[in-house]
Amino acid sequence: MAEHGRLLDAVKGQPRAVWVTAFAAVIAFMGIGLVDPILKSIGEGLDATPEQVTLLFSSYIFVQVFAMLVTGVFSARFGAKRTVLTGLGLIVVFAALSGTSTSIGELVGLRAFWGAGNAFFIATALAVIVGAASGGQGPAILLYEAALGLGLSVGPLVGAALGNISWRAPFFGTATLMAVAFVLCLTMLDKDRATGEGRSVLAPIRALRHRGLLTVASSAFFYNFAFFTVLAWTPFVLGWGPTAIGLLFFGWGLLVAISSVVWAPRLAGRLGESRAMLLGLTAFAVLLVVDAYGTTGAVAAVTVLSGACLGLLNTLYTGAAMAVSDSPRPVASAGYNFLRWFGGAAGATLVGHIANWAGNDQAPFLVAGALVAVGAGLLLLGRRTLGTLHVVPVMAPALANAD
Fold first, then answer.
1. For 355-376, how does the pLDDT look when each residue is reduced to its tens digit (9 = 90+)?
2. Exposure of 149 in the CB half-sphere (CA atoms within 13 A)
3. How many other CB atoms are there within 10 angstroms of residue 304's CB atom?
4. What is the tens place of the pLDDT at every residue in 220-238?
5. pLDDT tens digits, one per residue of 186-227
6. If phi over 0 gives left and psi between -120 and 50 gives alpha, with beta otherwise, what is residue 360?
7. Domain definitions of the chain by residue range
8. 251 close to 149: Cβ distance less than 8 angstroms
9. Buried b vs exposed e over 152-173: b needs ≥16 C-beta within 10 Å?
10. Are the CB atoms for 238 and 296 separated by under 8 Å?
11. What is the crossing angle of helices 80-98 and 55-78, to 10°?
12. How far apart are CA 277 and CA 308, in angstroms?
């Protein structure tokens, strides 16, 4: 309890820029899970197959991945505030346009531009929060991961509530909320300072030459493949309506948020970060195997429980990526996120095809479990490149100093 109190003390009293950016991050991450409850409705409304509908994740993430290579250059040239506002502006426009789509191809294309906006925002938001936060990197990462978890949990609720009106309504609702975030960031973030700093588009890729960062990012590739398998395919396996799916993923996202903020630092402090990640990956792999062979009730229960593993792993991976490399934080973050989200895009793209090839709707979960094991194996093989570095436990001194 004392440790939990120190955590709360460290999070309290953060500068205005941190809270504004964190709020915008919640809305941005809502866009990932927003379509979950309405995937079936979109398919019915636009006469699309499940494989076509899951492209809503694929186009969004693939474009986000490659756009992240540009965000570092853009941010260095124009400043963090302008980069954040550019991302938010793109999301507002293309979220609204998504609600006007007349075909699945058009919607997939508009989601791609939405992904570009997300890239500009997400890649810069973490650097803004880390740079502005008081108490060091630890509390900043916790706030960022908490925003991710809250966004993932609230997104399905918004999608379910508005999806009962029309599958188009969640897109218009997200555009409205993001417009609010845009105004807040415009009026409350500090003005940019012209640095004139030059940065190569390929700098994030070159950062992956660092063996420690490459180990973490490569493992995260396989982990994120499984992450988006759960996110993109569970609604089709369960076959439930928007409200039930929305509530299910709200519980899932709530566990993501709680475990990322409260449990991850404590587990890493006790076991060390590498062991904590291996434990989280092992538990996630076991849950995915249950997903592959379980009944509908078991799939629903496992989906919610997996949120605890995902929250732990999100924080542990992000902490490692931000500290293991000797590259500047924005560059290391972009390189790590490039591989991490690429895995998510691959998972969302292939999940429907895997089910078709196997002739079994639950087969994608088994493949995802095997890939999580591959991710754990990479961490084991590369543990020497991480050395004795305990990134998330570094939060412990920060939390202790918060008294």
1. 999 999 999 999 999 999 999 9
2. 30
3. 17
4. 999 999 999 998 899 999 9
5. 998 888 765 555 567 788 888 888 888 999 999 999 999 999
6. beta
7. 2-192+201-400
8. no
9. bbbbbbbbbbbbbeebbbbbbb
10. yes
11. 150
12. 12
The three-state secondary structure class of 1 is coil
Lookup: tokens for 328:
């500047």
Q: Is 177 left (phi over 0), alpha (psi -120 to 50) or beta?
A: alpha
Question: Which amino acid is residue 235, in one-letter code?
Answer: P
214 φ, ψ (degrees, to nearest 5) = -65, -40
Residue 254 amino acid letter: L
Q: Give how far Cα 393 sits from Cα of 144, 276, 316, Å.
A: 16, 11, 9
Domain 2-192+201-400 adopts which CATH fold? Growth Hormone; Chain: A; (1.20.1250)
Residue closest to 160 by CA, chosen among 91, 236, 249:
249
Q: Which residues contact 172 (CB under 8 A, 6 or more apart)?
A: 95, 96, 99, 162
CA distances from 136 to 11, 143, 149, 158, 402 (A): 11, 12, 21, 33, 10
